[in-house]
Structure formats: C-alpha cells, structure tokens
Write a structure and sequence with these properties.
- The chain is an alpha/beta fold and 394 residues long.
- It has 2 domains: 133 residues, Aspartate Aminotransferase, domain 1; 232 residues, Type I PLP-dependent aspartate aminotransferase-like (Major domain) (Aspartate Aminotransferase, domain 2, 3-Layer(aba) Sandwich), CATH 3.40.640.
- The protein is 40% helix and 13% strand.
- The strands form 3 sheets. Strands 2-8-7-6-5-3-4 form a 7-stranded mixed sheet, with helices on both faces. It has a 3-stranded antiparallel sheet with strand order 9-12-11. Strands 1-10 form a two-stranded parallel sheet.
- Helix 6 links the parallel strand 3 and strand 4.
Length: 394
C-alpha cells in the first residue's frame, strides 16, 4: 500500500482549491493561458513593494559572518523585538516583548505551533463557517476535534451559536478576520462581546478557553474598515499571521505567532511554542526572510489596487444578477449560486473556462469563492461569461 489509510482518506477530501488550480494548469495547456480565467487560488498577483527588493539586495551583499547560521528557535531576537514594537504600537501599547513572539514558517506553521502547544488529545476547537478547511487537517495533526458552527446571514459571528457549542472539552475558538472566503471583518463590538463570552465560559467550565485569530489579511481592508484587536478584548489569546498577502510573499513562507502579554501561564505557553516550532520540524523560520520583514512591518502592497479589482468584479456581477455581500477585506468574493448544488454551478463556469471554488470546500454550500487577486483583464474578459452561465438558471 503506497500511503497510510489515513492519508489516502485525507487525499480524497483534500482542498478543492488545489484541485481547481491543477484544473487550471490542464486547461491552460489545452486552450491557451489567455483563454483561462482562473479565480481559484489566493495567490497575490501584485509584486512585493520596491523597499523589499532593495532590502533583499542589501542582505544578499552582506558578508557578515554567521548571516545564514542557526538562530534561537523562536527567531532572531532583533526581528522579534521589531514585531513586538509593532504590536505594541497597534494594540494600545500593551507590553509586548520578544518572548511573546515566535517567527514561523508562514501562518500555517504558526497555527500548527499554537495548536500543538495548547491541545490535549480529543479537545475541541470551535470554528465559525465558512472557513479555511485546512484548519481541519491542522487540528487532526494534534488530535484536536473541529466543531463547526454557522455564522449570521451576513457572515458575522453568531455569538449564541458559539456559546451553545462550548463544552467541557472546548479548548479554543479559532476565527479568521478578514475572512477567507467571505471577506468579512468582525467588528470591534462583536470581538469585545466574544471576549466577554469566553471569560464567562471559562469560568463556567473552570478551564481556560483560548481565542486564536488567523490574520494574514489584516492590512487588506477597504472603505475605512478597521480590524479590531483581539488582544485588547481577551487576555487568553493568540494571533497567527504571515507576510504572504500584504507583502505578496507567499512563496517565502514567513510569518509569526504572537501570544497576548497578559495570557495566563505565559512562561510555559511561550516555552511550549518555541519547543513546538522545533519539534514540528520547522526548527526556525527562514533567516533571510526574518531579516527582511523586520524592516517591512509598516509596509504593504498598494491595497487600493485590490479595492479597484473588488469594485470591478462586484459591479459587473451585480449587473449580471449575482447575489453577494460586498467583501470588506481580503481578496475574495463569496456569491450565492443560483442553484443549490454549488459544485454543479462551478462545473458550469468551468465549461466557460472560469475557475472558481465551490463554497462547500469552505463549509459554505450554496456559494462559490472567487479570488480576485488577478489582473484586471481576467476580470473584464470573464464577466460576459459569468453572465452567460447565470442566465441559464435565472
């Protein structure tokens, strides 16, 4: 048998996103790249800021001894200090220190580090849906159990549903804002209410319930929207993030996990995260990228470009008859499908060489996800085909 039964089962239910991306490759070879409209993968199409390129050149020319040597498993102290100073500035000057930061191999690495640190076998993590379904595999890595709950019709957090889902086995609530796939940003009032709810639930069950926020899209927000701080709302909290989206560096695999400075048992939690970063096989985040991003914490790609893409797509699809909630952040649109079977509608779009992902792949049946981090020409040329397909059903 070529692979374990568990992995074979996981392959069968693995990411729709990758399946569609691979379908895109096959169609590009068959029909030509210019005739394929691939909205399947959240792969930023903007180049990193010019400052990043200059920093990379400077680092490459640095001849200091030990520039590429091992460092503490948590990352370079100077990089973690830079991140701590950045978080302090953006979280009401909370007393972050380098010991509150672990540099990681992307946000996925950060989330695995946190989950391995806090989870006992069989403990539950509550996840509002729609959600990034790789979370299921990450939890399985550490013998955790996902508890999927619905959100409100506008994709806001349903606090009543969260409260009802909490049990004596609940270890954490995992949120993602701005959200993939909906683009929803949870409001400060809702985050503060969630913090109060988790305080009450922790007391009720006499155990710490953590709040984890996955925030790789934090800087990609529109129309003056603010992404509130979970650190200011709840002490027992972690943020995991990366520089993949706001700096257009997904292939560099660099991010970090940050623990609230006021978390209970901070010393053992922080030590556990450092240990887990090592024993999960990451050892440490890439040295070159750690040095680069420490000087780029205030930088991002031009978010206005993504806003224009959002508006171009939203205006065009609304005129065709698609129903959706306009995203407040990230670079995804999550419109309803005109038929119940979202996979079938995705297939109908695919026949016109439009590649999207069924909402079922994110725990949101009856929708599709459109990643609009593509060039404007792709959006413009695809819009008549989006219209052609939906008119078959309305």
């Amino acid at each position: 048998m070529p692979a374990s039964k568990k992995i074979q089962a996981s392959i069968k239910r693995s990411s729709w996103i990758r399946k569609m991306f691979e379908e895109g490759d096959a169609r590009r070879k068959k029909f030509g790249a210019e005739n394929i409209f691939d909205f399947s993968l959240g792969n930023p199409n903007l180049e990193p800021p010019e400052k990043f390129k200059q920093i990379i050149k400077d680092l490459a020319n640095n001849s200091d001894t030990g520039s590429h040597a091992y460092m503490p498993n948590a990352g370079f102290v100077e990089t973690r200090q830079a991140v701590a100073d950045y978080l302090k500035k953006n979280n009401d000057h909370r007393p972050f220190s380098p010991n509150d930061i672990v540099m990681t191999v992307g946000a996925g690495g950060a989330l695995n580090v946190v989950l391995k640190t806090i989870l006992n076998p069989g403990e539950e993590v509550i996840i509002p849906s729609p959600y990034f379904v790789e979370y299921n595999f990450y939890l399985d890595n550490h013998q955790g159990i996902p508890v999927i709950i619905n959100t409100e019709p506008d994709f806001s957090l349903d606090l009543n549903a969260i409260e009802e889902a909490v049990t004596e086995k609940t270890r954490a609530v995992l949120i993602n804002s701005p959200n993939n796939p909906t683009g929803k940003v949870y409001t400060e009032d809702v985050i503060n209410e969630l913090g109060r709810l988790l305080v009450d639930c922790s007391r009720k069950f006499n155990r710490t319930i953590y709040l984890i926020s996955d925030e790789p899209y934090r800087k990609i927000v529109y129309d003056g929207i603010n992404v509130p701080s979970i650190f200011n709302a709840y002490n027992e909290s972690f943020i995991v993030t990366s520089f993949s989206k706001d700096l257009s560096l997904p292939g560099e695999r660099i991010g970090y996990a940050a623990v609230n400075p006021d978390i209970s048992d901070k010393e053992i939690i922080s030590s556990g995260m450092v240990l887990c970063n090592r024993i999960l096989g990451y050892v440490n985040a890439p040295a070159f990228m750690q040095r680069a991003v420490s000087a780029l914490l205030e930088e991002s790609v031009d978010i206005e470009v993504y806003r224009n893409k959002r508006d171009l797509l939203c205006d065009g699809l609304a005129a065709c008859g698609y129903e959706f909630i306009k995203p407040q952040g990230a670079f995804y649109l999550f419109p309803k499908t005109p038929i119940e079977d979202d996979a079938a509608f995705t297939s109908a779009l695919q026949e016109e060489n439009i590649l999207t992902v069924p909402g079922s792949g994110f725990g949101g049946p009856g929708y599709i996800r459109i990643a609009y981090c593509v060039d404007d020409r792709t959006i413009e040329k695809a819009l008549p085909l989006f219209e052609k397909v939906i008119k078959k059903y309305i």
